Amino acid sequence: MAQVSVTINGRQYRMACEDGQENHLVKLAKNLDDRIVDLRGKFGQIGDARLIVMAAITVADDLAEMGKRVRHLEDELSALQDARVVSADRSQAMHTAIVAAFNSASERIESIARRLNQTVAEDNVAMG
Predict the structure, then answer these.
(1) Residue 17, domain member (yes or no)
(2) For residue 55, what are the domain limits?
(3) Residue 61 pLDDT more than 70?
C-alpha cells in the first residue's frame, strides 16, 4: 500500500491508497480543496466542518448528476442498439427482396430467350 500526503482546507492528511493510485488520490484531494476554497470565497468563514459538509454535498450532487447522465446515455445506447438490429433486419429483408427480384428477372429473360429460340428454330430462320 502506498502512502500519500494531501492538503485539504489547509490541513495535511496522510492517506493510504493502492500502489499506482497516488496521483489520482492527490487530484481528488485537490478537487475537494478547490471546492472548499470556492465555498469559502462565496460564504466567508462559516466554520471548517460546515465548509467540508457543503463541499461533500456538492461532490454528492455532481455524482448524482453524473449518475443521471450515465443512465440517460445507457438508455440512448440501448435505443441505438435496438435501431441497429431493426436496421440490420430491414437490410437483410431488402437484400432478400433484391435477390428475389433479380432471380425473377433472370427467369423471365431465360423464358423469353427460350421462346425466341423456339420461334427461330420453327421458322428455320438463320441467326447472325
Answers:
(1) yes
(2) 2-113
(3) yes
